[in-house]
Give the backbone structure.
Amino acid sequence: MKYNFNEIETKWQKYWAENKTFKAINNSEKPKYYVLDMFPYPSGAGLHVGHPLGYIASDIYARYKRHQGFNVLHPQGYDSFGLPAEQYAIQTGQHPAITTAENIKTYRRQLDQIGFSFDWSREVRTSDPSYYKWTQWIFIQLFNSWYNNDNNKAEDISSLTTIFSSEGNTNVNAVCDDNIESFSAEEWNAFSSEKQQQILLQYRLTYLAETEVNWCPDLGTVLANDEIVNGVSERGGHPVIRKKMTQWSMRISAYTERLLQGLDTIDWTDALKESQRNWIGKSVGASVTFNVNEHDAVIDVFTTRPDTIFGVSFMTLAPEHELVSQITTPEQKAEVDAYILATAKRSERDRMADVKTISGAFTGAYAEHPFTKEPIPVWIGDYVLAGYGTGAVMSVPCGDERDYAFAKHFNIPIPNIFDGVDISEEAFADKANTKIGNSDFLNGMNYKKATKRAIYELEQMGQGEGKTNYRLRDAVFSRQRYWGEPFPVYYVNGMPQMIEAEHLPIKLPEVEKYLPTETGEPPLGNATVWAWCTETNSVVSNDKINDTSVFPLELNTMPGWAGSSFYFMRYMDPENPNEMASKEAMDYWQDVDLYIGGSEHATGHLLYSRFWQKFLFDKGVVPVDEFAKKLINQGMILGTSAIVYRVSGTNQYVSNGLKGDFEIEEIRVDVNMVNSSDEIDIEELKKWQPQFNDAEFILEDGKYIVGREVEKMSKRWFNVVNPDNICEQYGADSLRLYEMFLGPLEQYKPWNTAGITGVHSFLKKLWKLYVGENGLHVNDATPTKDNLKTLHKTIKKVQEDIENFSFNTSVSTFMIAVNELTAQKCTSKEILEPLLVLISPYAPHIAEELWNQLGNNESVSTAPFPEFDASHLVESSKNYPISFNGKMRFTMELPLDMSKDDIEKAVLGNEKTQEQLGGRTPKKVIVVPGKIVNIVG
RNA sequence: GCUCAAGUGGCGGAAUUGGUAGACGCGCUGGAUUCAAAAUCCAGUUUCUUCGGAAGUGUGGGUUCGAUUCCCACCUUGAGUACCA
């Protein structure tokens, strides 16, 4: 009987689906274990071999945990709202729901053929109304909450209005907008309802505000900070400009400190934690207020070095700073205006790229130093960013490189306030080795002391206070797109109102066109049935809008990260129509034990999810405030592109080895036309694209050899390898083993189809170990010592590997085990049966088939993981390596229970040792028990 | 610029309390089988070598009887971040 992988794999995939082998139950005697993958966005291109890498790893772990007796939750679903489906709809008019459903079908087929142990009964789709009902529900919860700094948690908005109506807002310690006017209880109660709503918006955890946002004209939408890379949009690389718009925002700033501290409680990689820390960007320092001379104005600055306040010799404002026009003197106006114009013309990107050029302008105004009362010139400069801190800095040229360079460039004095430090060449920014001088009451103090004292003095004068600043901004939550969650919001007199939870979901309306309207409104502006009737509590036609009961609905939709910020909780109870998930389900599953996914989500999905989880925890909805205990980032599988070389200006193509003699252009061609020796099939190439139809080829040794380049697997490089082909040719088990065998999980590694024959022939050998020409040749023979040794060292190694996520090395371990057992002619069931359990997480189909052939009726996945017995590995003696002066010379068999002294005697009495020593007496003999004997002569 | 990670055969990669470097696989070489090919099996495969050995884990130092592993400096590559006051 041959190893017919196609037949076996189809058979068992069908069996698992029909028997619901991997269905997880929400209560069990067994301990729970939750293994989660980052769910995919179902793109039109389908899966390539790079996509399943993380899924295979998590599947191995999930199957391993089942063998260990855990009740395992291992779900999968689709992040199915998003831009590509919408852009496809704009081009073709096809409804995104239809294309998305088609894509999901392809994904499901491709995932199924790899043999994952997902519990598909728990599938979620973020674009499904029964799912986004809960996305909308969470939005309403956020709207109805404020953040109380006194007890450090989110509270219901009703507790805030209670305080307002009894004592006003002066004692409220909340995370809210800046510049809130204070009011008394009487004033609050006298405010109109609209005014009250306006004020509450400044406290709510999601709020509507006119803010400066990142507007991407080409995409026709605003973007969050994490969707912008190097000043252009992450998707498509379009330019992004700053623009003031009224938008929904999420008050994630309320959670900065808890998001930071929570990182210490979870087992995520240091790199990932570090990038979240950087993104949050905490810096501790002080805010200082400088009075502007001859103006009724103050400049607030944030500084991390209040200890250097006596070193201030000028101040710098961002060119966009609101005070600039107010304080600029008539003489300086022309220069300042010209500078502002020049910087406005430069794109964000130019400004970032060019950090060396120093530029700025003097406003003519002076501020007053809070202690010395000296006048300080006020400049503007584009090295100060409007978006960070207050958009103004106190410049201390002796202690900051940028201030130093600016001062040098404009000939501003550089007073030295550091004792015994030479600042004639560069600034001294070292906090640790500072002794302050020339600074009145700070003289002689170190950084720590001086900082404390300076803040104290500033507070005494009412000119400043200790302050912590964060880089993390509130997250803009509106998108001007069609294919996203609609907001459960309608407007009465311009004020947003929430639709009551019992009327959710508010389903996405049908539209004729998916593009924004001519007036710049989002695509939902094209909907004709998109108004809310408060009498019937339903969506009605726009033409019924009146002032009393029918109101316009919000036209924006939610961003991509909304639906992915709680899906891991919904998996626990995905069909529940009454709750996001039942309390029993959440109490049972608690959180994700192992989360595997790409590191590109470090500052997006993974930060927002933590934010929502903490909020839902505050509200008592979820039982824990970090959703994933452990997280692993899998690396990427790269493609190996194939390149042909066209001789410039001709239709001739030159082989790789000869290209040096020509002026050439590189053209990437489909890797599937190239064999493992980098030789391309010329006939296929000619047919592949019209430009090659009558091309001529300059060959080497009668062949055309392509060039190779390792890069991201992508359609545009024609280097995509489809898992369908691999499964068909070698089987899913080969694919699974090979993806693991390629290298460490976290690493980036190139795909090379040629290498798969190694793991494939291993599976054939494994099959042959069990099945011969005339059927199964496994019997009840008593295992030999060698059999047991092979089995148990394999158990030990595989278990260690899985627990350390070193899946690549256990594939080698299996190969060695099968080779050894084959050489030992092992037929013993006692050995061969547990071996299948070890292999089944990696290659489940073949394991299931052989397990079944051995006469088991239950799935192999229900079998316990074999127990390791060290006694089979213990030896009575060991080959000790003997070295002379550190050089390995020979080995010597010695009993394991021998004492140190006896080993020394035995070694020195040995003939070979005598030979090595050549009559000399050794100075020293070093014995490391169980390892080595070293003789020093 | 800063932060982090990594540098081992032709290639992917093994090797952790510091103890025989190159496991396992690909590729390559030779052989068996075959009319031939594929498949399969066997042997070999770090480099140099006067066949005794010698050198060898990015480079240069250090600690140690002994270093791929620990320490210092440097070089290279990759990732992240970037005027954050």
About this structure: The radius of gyration of chain A is 35 Å. The mean pLDDT of chain A is 87.
